[in-house]
Amino acid sequence: MPIALLTDFGTRDYFVAAMKGVILSINPKAVIIDITHEIPPQDVWTGAFVLKSAYKWFPSGTIFLAVVDPGVGTERLPLIIKTRRYYFVGPDNGLLSLAAEEDGVEAVYKIEAKLPRISTTFHGRDVFAPAAAYLSLGIEPRLLGVPVKSWIKLEFPAPRVEDNVIHARAIYVDRFGNVYTSAREEAFQIAQYGDTLCFEAEGRIIKAKFVETYGRARAGETVALINSEGYLELAVAMGNAASTYGLKPGLDLKIRKCI
Fold first, then answer.
1. What sequence ranges are listed for the domain S-adenosyl-l-methionine hydroxide adenosyltransferase N-terminal (predicted)?
2. Contacts 24+ apart (CB under 8 A), 237-243
């Protein structure tokens, strides 16, 4: 079973290497894959969204070890979530919830198997990495923890359409500065390719041509498109929409066809 890592640790420090060292000490044959270690520090929502976007492309049986853990050392639980096809290991702060619920949760366990010495600030190394390593050896999660019925779940912002206006939210900004919104096929209820969409954010109006792909726009042109994950996205061709317009996840948006 491969182990796929997602953290907000970055690559400057030793944190990711320490986690991999623990895994390989328990299972020297473990296959470890990095999803990303560049989640913004303490940004649980972005971590959850990236995990949700990535997990489904991995083979059945993959163990997802995700650590964005501002509550480390507190009463928050350490979890193993068994889903229809995968295992998810990490803190009980909603980080695992979007992906796990989408795949179908079968059981949730509070991790009790740990290293002999546990720090209060690095459960990625001392709690989550050992649990993932033992799972990769085929050990059942019921032998690593106890079942729990209650755990934290994030709520994905559902878009709605009223009077030809989409009420949505900015949910993610990628490294190109493209702004994902929570709207999806709702865009086709109010416009078609070639139309201009008006995005209202914090009282400002951003006009964007609705196109099929980036290559249909001139350099510097603001566009809207349905991206590879199926979300309506605001982008600047050969530019950065987030920095150009000061957009970030969490902003409420009203999207309509410009008159």
1. 3-143
2. 239/177, 240/176, 240/177, 241/177, 241/178, 241/179, 242/173, 242/177, 242/178, 242/179, 243/177
Q: Write down the pTM of the prediction.
A: 0.92
Q: Report how many domains make up the chain.
A: 2
DSSP 3-state of 255: strand
The per-residue DSSP string of 60-123 comes to TT-EEEEE--TTTTSSPPEEEEEESS-EEEEESSSTTHHHHHHH-EEEEEEE----SS--SS-H
- In CATH, what number is assigned to the domain containing residue 199? 2.40.30.90
Q: Is the pLDDT of residue 32 over 90?
A: yes
- Confirm whether 152 is domain-assigned: no
123: Cβ contacts below 8 Å, ≥ 6 apart:
67, 69, 72, 73, 78, 91
Same domain, 198 and 100: no
Whether 155 is covered by a domain: the verdict is: no
Which residue matches tokens 């993610």? 172
Backbone angles phi, psi at 143, to 5 degrees: -90, -10
Q: Residue 5: name the closest of 124, 126, 152 by CA.
A: 124
pLDDT digits (tens, 9 = 90+) for 156-188: 999 999 999 999 999 999 999 999 999 998 988
Q: Give yes or no: residues 123 and 165 share one domain.
A: no
The parent domain of residue 29 ranges over: 3-147
